[in-house]
Amino acid sequence: MAITLDQQLEVTGTGADTYAFTAFAVAAGALLVTGVSFWSATATLAVSDNVNGAWTVPTGVVSTGGADEQRTAIAYFANAAAGTTTVTLNPGGSPDIG
After folding, report:
1. What is the pLDDT along the chain (98 residues), one digit of tens a residue?
2. Across 15-94, where does the E strand assignment appear?
């Protein structure tokens, strides 16, 4: 099975509770992956979508240190159901995301 990049999106914002983006039609069995960077000393990350539900954040949130830290995480959902998928990122604590 070949691995292909179907879509690359960028979402940015300041101080919202959640951020969302809509992926075009996802094929059944796809592996959905997102990387997220945000600025907050205390935020955690939850990712979900309207078709498959909650995603896995396998490594947790990685911090770069400092008072207002940049944090980075990767989340995924394996064996996705087919459909037009809206992905929601919820970095608790209303941080800036980008």
Report:
1. 566 666 666 666 666 667 777 877 888 999 998 888 777 666 678 889 999 999 998 765 666 666 667 777 888 999 999 999 888 888 766 555 55
2. 19-26, 32-39, 45-49, 53-54, 62-63, 70-77, 83-91
